[in-house]
Amino acid sequence: MADQTKYTSKLRNARILIIGGSSGIGYAVAEATLESGALVTISSSNPTRVASAVASLKAAYPTSRIHGHAADLSSPATLEATLETLFQTTVAALPSQKLDHVVFTAGDALSTMAISDMSVPKVLQAGQIRFVAPLLTAKFVARFVEMSRRSSYTITTGSISEKPMPDWAVVAAYAGGAHSMVRNLALDLKPVRVNGVSPGVVDTELWNMGKEEKERLLARAAKGMATGVPGLPGDVAESYLAVLKDANMDGAMVRTDGGGMLM
Which of 134, 149, 152, 182 shows the shortest CA–CA distance to 15? Predict the structure, then answer.
């Protein structure tokens, strides 16, 4: 007689779209959900990176069901049309043409901006992918996700939303807005659950700088973390699994920051 699997099988056959899934945290979430038996689609702006990520995931999980679609969310003029195409293409291959979960991990290069360097175009550009895109994605979650408490939409923000640093005001403003976004969308999309994950410093490709500079930055960040080391995507992905699987979690923000808020 086999052991029961009521916890480890919660995502088996779940239909999941990971926006920003070709690298970093999103890629790790793709790995984690594939290991849980889900049918996964990843997207990001670069078709070559999407194809490479899909090939890598298929190599690691030969029996998995993984697809990829390119979707460039960087242009305000085309954002809505791009999202609609992404969702339509994703569900076209599904028998019910519905998703169970959407995870938004997309982001652009992290950068600081001094007050003296602020301008309207720069401020608006900084919020395009990290704020406007996940907010507008909710419109398509309402159309293409199964209306059930077992379904969910997960938004990614960052610890800068709660722990300020000099020259990060613009990014922090959008990151803080994601907290309110999660709570309000949880009401607008109910019974679909809406939650957020707030990572601290994580070693990903979003740190757009040279190798030595990145190593120095991560070393400095580690001194401000109770764990003593920056987060790894594979660790942070566990928080996303919890959000996806806990059908009682709604309107919540999960923090995974190596104890950085304590230091």
Answer: 152
* 22 close to 42: Cβ distance less than 8 angstroms: yes
Question: Per-block average pLDDT, block size 10, for the chain (263 residues)?
Answer: 92 97 95 97 97 97 96 97 98 90 89 89 94 98 98 96 92 96 98 97 76 81 89 95 98 95 88
Q: Which of 132, 145, 113 minimizes the C-alpha distance to 17?
A: 145
Report the 3 state secondary structure along 202-225: ECCCCCCCCHHHHHHHHHHHHHCC
Superfamily of domain 15-254: NAD(P)-binding Rossmann-like Domain (3.40.50.720)
Longest distance between any two alpha carbons in the chain, whole Å:
68
For the four alpha carbons of 201, 38, 17 and 243, in that order, the dihedral sign comes to: negative
Q: What is the pLDDT of residue 133?
A: 98
Distances, alpha carbon 50 to alpha carbons 72, 169, 238, in Å? 11, 32, 22
Q: How many CA atoms lie within 13 A of 152 on its CB side?
A: 27
Give the distance from CA 71 to its chain's centroid.
Answer: 14
Indicate the helix (H) or strand (E) that contains 194.
strand 193-199
Spell out the domain ranges in the chain.
Answer: 15-254
Number of residues written out for the chain:
263
pTM over 0.85: yes
